[in-house]
Amino acid sequence: MFGHVPLLTNQHLCDFLANLSRIALRHIDSPEAIERIARLYWYTVEFGLIREADGLRIYGAGILSSKGETHYALHDDRPQRLPYDVRTIMDTPYIKEHFQEQYFVIDSYEQLYLSVSEIEKHIAEKTVLGLES
Fold first, then answer.
1. pTM (whole model) above 0.70
2. Which of 78, 84, 102, 116 is the most exposed place for a label (fewest CB within 10 A)?
């Protein structure tokens, strides 16, 4: 309830998710493309950070569901906090077994929505070039 639901009041995020779903459906028969989309979802909707005027904040529901990862993501020196970059995210496997080694930071939810065409382009390039691993 507290993880995903509040974010669904943000139109840019909802449009991002709708478009991400549309892209996934178009590539449903490509396990490699679906993996890249899953990575993007993981590092945004589940484990994303957002930069606000007063500092970094969590918006990812996966982080919010863990008191330990909440502290780790915002206050520990170990994880990298990288700027949102579609290509880097889609080429970065995620970790399920322990806290993330890196988090990706958006500047706004609109930034996610505006990246949809880049997501489509990157998946198309990887699929056409046979670089789907």
1. yes
2. 78
